[in-house]
Amino acid sequence: MASIGVNAVKVIDGDGDVVSVTNNRLDVNATIGTGSSTFTTYPQDTATTSAQTISTLIGATVSTCKEIIIQPDFDNASYIMIGDGGVSSDDTEGIRLSAGETLILPISSTDNVSVRAPDGSQKLNISIIT
Q1: Cβ neighbours for 117, distance < 8 A, ≥ 6 positions apart
Q2: What's the predicted TM-score (pTM) here?
Protein backbone atom coordinates (compact mmCIF):
# COMPACT_ATOMS: atom_id res chain seq x y z
CA MET A 1 0.00 0.00 0.00
CA ALA A 2 1.30 3.44 -0.88
CA SER A 3 1.98 5.93 1.84
CA ILE A 4 1.58 9.65 1.73
CA GLY A 5 4.66 11.57 2.68
CA VAL A 6 7.41 13.83 1.46
CA ASN A 7 8.35 11.67 -1.52
CA ALA A 8 4.76 10.62 -2.33
CA VAL A 9 2.94 11.36 -5.58
CA LYS A 10 0.66 14.38 -5.32
CA VAL A 11 -2.89 14.09 -6.57
CA ILE A 12 -4.26 17.26 -8.16
CA ASP A 13 -8.01 17.96 -8.41
CA GLY A 14 -9.80 19.60 -11.32
CA ASP A 15 -9.17 23.09 -9.90
CA GLY A 16 -5.42 22.48 -9.74
CA ASP A 17 -5.41 22.12 -5.94
CA VAL A 18 -3.40 19.39 -4.24
CA VAL A 19 -5.76 16.81 -2.73
CA SER A 20 -5.21 16.46 1.00
CA VAL A 21 -5.84 13.54 3.35
CA THR A 22 -7.10 13.74 6.93
CA ASN A 23 -7.43 10.59 9.09
CA ASN A 24 -6.78 8.40 6.02
CA ARG A 25 -9.68 10.01 4.11
CA LEU A 26 -9.59 12.29 1.12
CA ASP A 27 -10.70 15.81 1.91
CA VAL A 28 -13.37 17.03 -0.45
CA ASN A 29 -13.11 20.50 -1.90
CA ALA A 30 -16.32 20.86 -3.88
CA THR A 31 -18.95 23.45 -4.54
CA ILE A 32 -22.44 22.10 -4.91
CA GLY A 33 -24.75 24.33 -6.91
CA THR A 34 -28.21 25.07 -5.58
CA GLY A 35 -29.74 25.09 -9.04
CA SER A 36 -32.10 27.71 -10.25
CA SER A 37 -35.85 27.52 -10.40
CA THR A 38 -38.58 29.97 -11.23
CA PHE A 39 -41.87 29.98 -9.34
CA THR A 40 -44.69 31.39 -11.49
CA THR A 41 -48.27 31.95 -10.35
CA TYR A 42 -51.18 32.43 -12.73
CA PRO A 43 -54.48 34.30 -12.36
CA GLN A 44 -57.26 32.26 -10.76
CA ASP A 45 -59.21 30.28 -13.33
CA THR A 46 -62.46 28.30 -13.51
CA ALA A 47 -62.64 24.55 -14.13
CA THR A 48 -65.27 23.61 -16.70
CA THR A 49 -67.42 20.50 -17.04
CA SER A 50 -65.20 19.28 -19.90
CA ALA A 51 -61.56 18.31 -19.39
CA GLN A 52 -59.13 21.17 -20.02
CA THR A 53 -55.36 20.98 -19.91
CA ILE A 54 -53.40 23.22 -17.59
CA SER A 55 -51.96 24.78 -20.78
CA THR A 56 -55.47 25.83 -21.84
CA LEU A 57 -56.28 27.23 -18.41
CA ILE A 58 -53.13 29.35 -18.11
CA GLY A 59 -53.09 30.27 -21.80
CA ALA A 60 -49.64 28.85 -22.52
CA THR A 61 -47.80 25.55 -22.79
CA VAL A 62 -44.92 25.21 -20.34
CA SER A 63 -42.82 22.24 -21.44
CA THR A 64 -39.99 22.78 -18.96
CA CYS A 65 -41.88 22.21 -15.72
CA LYS A 66 -40.40 20.67 -12.64
CA GLU A 67 -43.68 20.81 -10.70
CA ILE A 68 -47.25 21.96 -11.17
CA ILE A 69 -49.11 23.07 -8.04
CA ILE A 70 -52.92 23.01 -8.17
CA GLN A 71 -55.25 24.25 -5.44
CA PRO A 72 -59.05 24.61 -5.65
CA ASP A 73 -60.20 27.91 -4.16
CA PHE A 74 -61.17 27.86 -0.47
CA ASP A 75 -64.63 29.23 -1.37
CA ASN A 76 -65.54 26.42 -3.80
CA ALA A 77 -68.77 24.60 -2.97
CA SER A 78 -67.73 21.44 -4.81
CA TYR A 79 -64.58 19.61 -5.92
CA ILE A 80 -62.21 19.60 -8.89
CA MET A 81 -60.86 16.48 -10.60
CA ILE A 82 -57.25 16.31 -11.80
CA GLY A 83 -55.99 13.71 -14.28
CA ASP A 84 -55.21 13.00 -17.92
CA GLY A 85 -57.43 13.97 -20.84
CA GLY A 86 -60.02 11.35 -19.83
CA VAL A 87 -60.51 12.70 -16.31
CA SER A 88 -64.16 12.44 -15.22
CA SER A 89 -66.29 15.08 -13.54
CA ASP A 90 -68.12 12.54 -11.34
CA ASP A 91 -65.02 11.58 -9.27
CA THR A 92 -64.66 8.12 -10.83
CA GLU A 93 -61.38 8.82 -12.67
CA GLY A 94 -58.61 11.13 -11.55
CA ILE A 95 -57.71 12.74 -8.25
CA ARG A 96 -60.44 14.59 -6.38
CA LEU A 97 -59.46 17.86 -4.72
CA SER A 98 -61.83 19.65 -2.39
CA ALA A 99 -61.70 23.36 -1.58
CA GLY A 100 -58.32 24.38 -0.20
CA GLU A 101 -56.55 21.06 -0.79
CA THR A 102 -53.29 21.15 -2.75
CA LEU A 103 -51.78 18.74 -5.26
CA ILE A 104 -48.13 19.03 -6.33
CA LEU A 105 -47.26 17.07 -9.46
CA PRO A 106 -43.64 16.49 -10.50
CA ILE A 107 -44.35 16.62 -14.23
CA SER A 108 -42.58 18.12 -17.24
CA SER A 109 -45.37 19.75 -19.27
CA THR A 110 -48.63 21.58 -18.67
CA ASP A 111 -50.10 19.63 -21.61
CA ASN A 112 -49.97 16.40 -19.56
CA VAL A 113 -52.47 17.39 -16.85
CA SER A 114 -56.19 18.06 -17.24
CA VAL A 115 -58.77 19.57 -14.89
CA ARG A 116 -62.52 19.05 -14.77
CA ALA A 117 -65.37 19.99 -12.40
CA PRO A 118 -68.96 18.79 -11.91
CA ASP A 119 -70.15 22.32 -12.67
CA GLY A 120 -68.57 25.39 -14.23
CA SER A 121 -68.21 27.52 -11.12
CA GLN A 122 -65.24 25.89 -9.35
CA LYS A 123 -62.21 28.17 -9.18
CA LEU A 124 -58.61 26.98 -8.97
CA ASN A 125 -55.15 28.41 -8.42
CA ILE A 126 -52.18 27.18 -10.43
CA SER A 127 -48.46 27.73 -9.88
CA ILE A 128 -45.60 26.23 -11.85
CA ILE A 129 -41.98 25.67 -10.92
CA THR A 130 -39.60 25.62 -13.90
Answers
A1: 46, 47, 48, 49, 78, 79, 80, 81, 89
A2: 0.71
